[in-house]
# Entry
Amino acid sequence: MKAALVLGAGGFIGGHLVKRLKREGFWVRGVDLKFHEFAETEADDFVIGDLREQDFCRSIFDRGFDEVYQLAADMGGAGYIFTGDHDAAIMHNSAAINLNVASIAHNRGIIRTFYSSSACIYPAYNQDDHNNPNCREDSAYPAAPDSEYGWEKLFSERLFLAYNRNFGLSNRVARYHNIFGPEGTWDGGKEKAPAAICRKIAMARSGDAIEIWGDGLQTRSFLYVDECIEGSVRLTRSQFEGPVNIGSDEKVTINQLVDIVADIAGKKIEKNHVPGPLGVRGRNSENSLIQKELGWSPPQNLRTGLEKTYEWIEWQVRGNE
Ligand code: NAD
# Structure
């Protein structure tokens, strides 16, 4: 039986990844600071602990793993990573985890670790025009991410790839672009735009206005979590090390995102534009490289993903009735 280790298994994407690997017949160990908030884990073994601590990190590599997925990070949406209040913690915590995982996995003979980097590594200067953002993988340098979260991701993707060069490993690096779906953070300050908008609309009555940060003309693309997992698993098992974008290339403005969710909810929703943390002006995944290297790229189905997500968040808002 194949074995997989999922670090960050108590989080949003890690929780979905555990389910996928179990469906494939893997023996799965999940590791996190906490249990998953919204679902019982399907992992065969779930270890609670802090990956910043070397001894703990060593202890979870007490057996061989065919695949290791490193998703653990100190992260959140714009309200968490762009205010500046959490910069030191984000950089310290995530870098400490990655330094431990990269070296201990290597020392324990793990050849291939998947690492989830982010679209936040891309230079701010290529994302000033909301109609024409450039997020091709080779546009990452000269580096100028707009957040410390992005700088840490850039450092860590280089770290995993340096292990490949120096020790002949086959680590894989993906740059995720705004992943969304059910069983993710939907309130409390760490939620991302799709979840926040679904929550606000689920709580609103038809005709109400909801608050939108900025003028709502900033563009993004959003990838449904199942497609993210599909891309991650395909990359891990491929011969391509990356870095490669795993994202949707279906670009929308935040205003359009609100309109789609309002339509799904069957509510008339007004927008009240207020100041707030915004991030770059435009961002969209560029998918030629993943298509070329994996012969696959995420299909465009934003609305379908939003329907499933809205249904789940509305159920949360109603208190799981
Ligand atoms: P998440 O916050 O839901 O999951 C991350 C998990 O890591 C959390 O459960 C957290 O408790 C755990 N963790 C944090 N510090 C830890 C520590 N010291 N020891 C053990 N566990 C620890 O985030 P997610 O959305 O599932 O993202 C997974 C990965 O993908 C992260 O690395 C994130 O940076 C990256 N990513 C996500 C997105 C996205 O849109 N969700 C976009 C780009 C990159």
Remarks:
- Residues 8, 10-14, 32-34, 50-52, 71-75, 93, 97, 116, 118, 176, 178-179, 192 surround nicotinamide-adenine-dinucleotide (CB under 6 Å).
- The two ends are 39 Å apart (CA to CA).
- The first strand starts at residue 3 and ends at 7.
- The mean pLDDT is 96.
